[in-house]
Predict the structure.
Amino acid sequence: MSTEPVLPPAEPLPPPKPPLLRRIFVGKEGIRAGWSLLIFLLILAAIIVSIQAVIQKLHLMTLPKPGTEISCGIRDPQRVDSLRC
């Protein structure tokens, strides 16, 4: 027989705690709802800013200069009084 002492079976180790960032961003069912909404809004804002930059760069739309009167395109003076732009 062997002269080595027999050790009792070791207790299973508890699972390691997930890192702090994982606990903040990810729950039991995946990414947390608040972070999903924030990511969606950031992507939406980036798309809007990008489209505005492209429109401005390609001169597809010009803004009126300050102090310029904006016309509705109606040439009948009687109808202009009843309509406001």
In short: The chain is about 45% helix and 5% strand.
